[in-house]
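Quick one, probably user error.
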C-alpha cells in the first residue's frame, strides 16, 4: 500500500498533466471561432493578370440544395457590394443555403480603381455569349475568355453549378429583370434590397456579360444583375443588403 506522501505527490504531479496545453487551447479557440463565423471553406479560384488571388468563401450549409454564387468587384471601380459580400462572410453562421461569395472578381481593377482589369479589358464583356469585339471603356478583350479573371469565374460556376447567382454592379440603381430565369426571386430581391426592377440593355450593346453567359450555359439556374446606386451608405452595404440577399433566398443567420 502506498504511503500518504507518495499518494499526495502523485496527485500533485498529476495536476499539471491535467491542465490544457497551449496547443490544445489554440485548437479549442479555433473550434469556438468556427461556430461563430459563417465561413466553412476558403478557396483561391484563380489569379488576376498581375497574379493576385481571386478568392471564394463558402458560407452556410453545404448540404442545402440551394446553391448560390455571389460576385462583386467585377468592375474594379464599383466596390459597393465588395463590402456587402464581406459582411456576409464575416457575420454569424448562415443556414438555409449553400453560398459561395467572391467579393473581388477583379482584384487588379480594384487596386487601381479602374473598371477594367490590368490589361484594360472589361471582364463583363469578356464572356462568350454574344461576344463581340468592343473597344474603349467596354473593351471586350482579344477573344471571349481571353482574361484569367473571367475564366476563373466561368470554371468555378461550371463546377459548383449555382441555382442562384447575383452579379453586383453600380451605379444604375436597379435590378435587371430582363432574363433572370426566376422572376419571383427577382421581385423578392428587389423588394428586400430596395431597388427598382428595370430592364438594362447595356446602352443597346449587351455582349459577353456574365449574366448572359450564365443563362445560356446554366439554363436551370437563375441569374440577377444588381446595380446599386453610386454611393450607398455603409449601413446599406453592410446591413441592409446582406440581410436582403439572405431573405430573398429564405436563408437565415
Ligand atoms: Zn459594372
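Nope, works fine. Designed sequence:
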Amino acid at each position: 500500500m502506498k504511503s500518504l506522501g507518495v499518494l499526495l505527490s502523485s496527485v500533485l504531479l498529476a495536476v499539471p498533466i491535467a491542465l490544457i496545453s497551449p496547443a490544445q487551447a489554440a485548437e479549442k479557440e479555433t473550434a469556438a471561432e468556427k461556430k461563430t463565423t459563417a465561413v466553412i471553406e476558403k478557396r483561391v479560384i484563380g489569379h488576376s493578370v498581375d497574379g493576385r488571388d481571386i478568392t471564394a468563401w463558402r458560407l452556410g450549409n453545404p448540404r442545402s440544395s440551394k446553391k448560390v454564387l455571389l460576385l462583386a468587384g467585377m468592375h474594379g471601380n464599383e466596390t459597393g457590394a465588395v463590402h456587402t459580400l464581406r459582411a456576409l462572410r464575416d457575420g454569424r453562421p448562415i443556414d438555409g443555403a449553400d453560398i459561395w461569395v467572391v467579393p473581388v472578381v477583379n482584384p487588379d481593377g480594384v487596386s487601381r480603381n479602374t473598371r477594367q482589369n490590368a490589361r484594360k479589358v472589361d471582364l463583363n464583356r469578356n464572356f462568350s455569349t454574344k461576344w463581340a469585339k468592343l473597344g474603349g471603356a467596354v473593351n471586350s478583350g482579344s477573344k471571349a475568355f481571353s482574361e484569367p479573371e473571367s475564366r476563373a469565374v466561368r470554371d468555378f460556376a461550371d463546377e459548383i453549378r449555382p441555382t442562384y447567382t447575383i452579379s453586383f454592379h453600380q451605379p444604375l440603381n436597379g435590378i435587371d429583370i430582363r432574363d433572370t430565369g426566376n422572376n419571383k426571386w427577382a421581385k423578392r430581391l428587389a423588394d428586400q434590397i430596395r431597388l427598382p426592377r428595370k430592364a438594362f440593355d447595356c446602352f443597346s450593346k449587351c455582349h459577353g456579360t456574365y449574366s448572359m453567359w450564365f443563362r445560356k450555359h446554366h439554363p436551370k439556374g437563375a441569374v440577377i444583375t444588381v446595380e446599386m446606386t453610386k454611393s450607398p451608405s455603409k449601413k446599406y452595404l453592410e446591413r441592409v443588403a446582406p440581410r436582403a440577399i439572405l431573405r430573398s433566398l429564405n436563408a437565415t443567420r
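The beta strands are 39-47, 53-60, 67-71, 98-102, 164-169, 174-176, 197-198, 222-227.
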